[in-house]
Each structure stands twice: as structure tokens, then as C-alpha cells.
Amino acid sequence: MVNQILHTLVNEHYGNEGLLDRILAAAHDDGVVLNEARSHDFSPVAEFHIGGRGSTIELAKMAQLQPGDKVLDIGSGLGGPARTLVEEFGIFVEGIDLTHEFCVVANELTRMTGLAGQAKFSQGDALNLPSDTNSYDVVWTQQSCMNIEDKNRMLSEVHRVLKPGGTYVFHEVLAGTEASAIQFPVPWARADNMSFLWTQEAIRNSILKIGLIEQVWKNATCKYIEEYRALASKTGEVSQRPKLGIHLMLGEQSAVMRKNVLENLSQGLIAIYQGIFKKV
User: Fold this and answer.
1) Residue 204 is part of a domain; what is its CATH number?
2) How many domains does the chain have?
3) Could you say which DSSP state residue 40 is in?
4) Edge to edge, what strands does the sheet with 270-279 contain?
5) Which domain holds residue 151?
6) CB 229 within 8 Å of CB 15
7) What is the SS3 assignment for 215?
């Protein structure tokens, strides 16, 4: 019952009808030739994690993705990271997301960019992955676990579906060093009833406990905070706001959300971590 309530909250938070039409209209107004679109044309809205497209490419290089790798993207959103990975690294991606609207948009943008043969998206639950055991070379989560309360169960599923020798890759927002409550709203939650940030010690220990071997563990907050500061400043004023951005998804409150993320980062209430772990 609790899980179903959370599913409903997540879909209500992210799943605004008409999102695809808004994105395509904004892209057209921004000069994108829609029948010639590439993955990066939609990245400003489809890669709305901290660090954007650049962090996706950095993370993939860190994980040493190889052409032909089969990747499961948990919390795949609008498919931005998946399309970048397909274009830049020649891999195959299956994405799952709780939000039906996200999956519809992700599949259509992927079709429009000519990548539907290498990436597909469906509605699914990270706690009950619709995948066989030992199926994937890589499991990928990129700023998608903040809404997942039972992270131990999610990690158990990650371990189950990874092939022996496979890699778990993540770029996530975790709790910071300060114990105070974070400021809401933020892009992943309007209140604390759908925000579940573990400390870096807790998540790291849980990953190791399921039997994954640490390759990389990195606090990337300093790397991305100034970039995010510039983005928050630019999107805070409607007159300066890019046509493509998270306001298409989260509405006018998105500027306040980004401002709050910056404050939370600056005050040490949240942090950005990247990790690479191997299944033996």
C-alpha cells in the first residue's frame, strides 16, 4: 500500500500530460529541425540531472562502456542519457521508469532521432525489475534514486540482473554532511514524503554488502556546483530562460526548485556522488 501511494505521488509529480507537444514546440522555436534532430538537441530538457549531458559522457568513460554493451537504465526519464550513450558509445539500452508519460516521450524522441533500434523504454518498478537474472553488462542510475525509499531492495535487484563481471554505475544526489532538513521544493520532490536521500556511508555500505566490488567512489559536488549555479541563475529569470528546460515538465516552480538545489548543495545538505561497482 505504501509503495502504491509513492508510485502515485511520483506519477503526479512528473507525469504532466502534453509534455511531448510542449517539448517539440519549444525545440522548433529554438531552431531544431525536428526531422533531422539528434540526441543533443533535446538534452537541455531530457538530461535534467545535475551536470547534464557532460556528466553522462564523463560517467560512461569512467565506467569504460564498450560498443555492444547491454545497459539497463533505471529511472530513465525522458531518455536523454540513454540516447547520449547510444550515440557516443554504441551500446544498447533498455530504460524503465515509473512515470508512464516519461516513457511515451522517451520512445518518441528516440524514434525521431533515429535511435529506436538501440534504445527502448517501458514503465517499470526498480524494486521488481522486469528482467531475467544475469541479463545486463551494465546497470545505470543517474539521479533517479532519490524517490526510492527501499534502496536495499533496489540494490538487490541491480545485483540480480547484472551479468557476472557486469558493472553498476551511478551518479546520484545523496544526503550531505549537515543534518538539517533540506529546502523544498526540489526537482525530484515538492515535499519530504517522496524524497529519500541516504548518506554516502549508508549507500556505499549497502552496495558492498550485496557483494559488488568498488572500482570508483567519488564526491563530485565541487565539480558540478558552479555549473549548476550558472544554470540556476539563467533559468531563474523567465526572460533569460532557455526554451528547452525542466520548466516544460515541472512548470513555473522549476526556478524555485533549482534555486533550492543550489542552496542545499551550498549548505552541505545534499551532495553529488558517482560510483562504479563490479559484480564478481
Assistant:
1) 3.40.50.150
2) 1
3) G
4) 119-123, 92-97, 70-74, 136-142, 162-175, 270-279, 212-219
5) 2-279
6) no
7) strand
